[in-house]
Amino acid sequence: MAKSAERLPGTSTRLRTRDDGCCSVNFLKYVLHIYNVVLFLSGLVVGGIGIWTVISKHNYVSLMTTSTYPTLAYALIVAGALAVVGSWLGCGGVTSENRCVLLIYVFVVMLVFVLEAGVGALARLYEEQVGPELKMNLNRTFLENYAVRRRETSAIDQMQIEFKCCGALRFEDWVVSEWHKDENVLKNGSLVPDSCCKTPTLLCGRRDHPSNIHYTVSIDFQPANIFANIIVTLLDLKRRKIGCIYKFLETTKDHLIILGAVGLGLSVLELFGIVLGSCLYIKLRHDFDD
Hints:
mainly alpha; two-stranded antiparallel sheet
């Protein structure tokens, strides 16, 4: 219950009470308790999305030329963990009305805000850069590193199986790759790696017939006008870009959109925590008005 304003005996000086102003201490505590529950749940969501991103793309990190993508995911995991810790810290500080704990809580929420907003902004920026980056470097990785570097070889095999594709751009590229220059490959007569096959088995890559491997057709067809664009859309020609580059790029962009939306969207939530925590911190001061 709010207290009425008190005055010092024999003076006109009014004592500042804990419930002065537009929001009482009890009201702020009640709202912050609700907010901390939301903060805790959002931390679990953010951390979960970060972990999901790391797990789903872990094997393909070696195929990327920069560490931006995994860095964004790990930053989200850290932000989620801090949000969970901050929510418990906030509950303790609010319940005990400990200004020192509240101050730490506000700084933790600020850090979560910076991390989430940074991830959101960088994800949106990297979304525009990842396309040219992959198109420039992934084909070279396929041609030069397959069967040369174990990590890249494993990642490429898994990519071709998961995305049902063959080659970075087209399956014919394999015959000019470092892999195809190997004596054993030439001796066995393999035209594509076994991971290109619809049912991968030993030496199945000796047949490059559409019934045996995932055919890769790369068409950079740009419609000349709106009518041509309608025809392309109806015939689904655009979806014939089924090289591993295009499929990997599509899923990567989808993940970046999710990271950006989560980062920017939930960073707004942290602003409320910063404001509410600061208000309660100030409200708990015991000083006098002149």
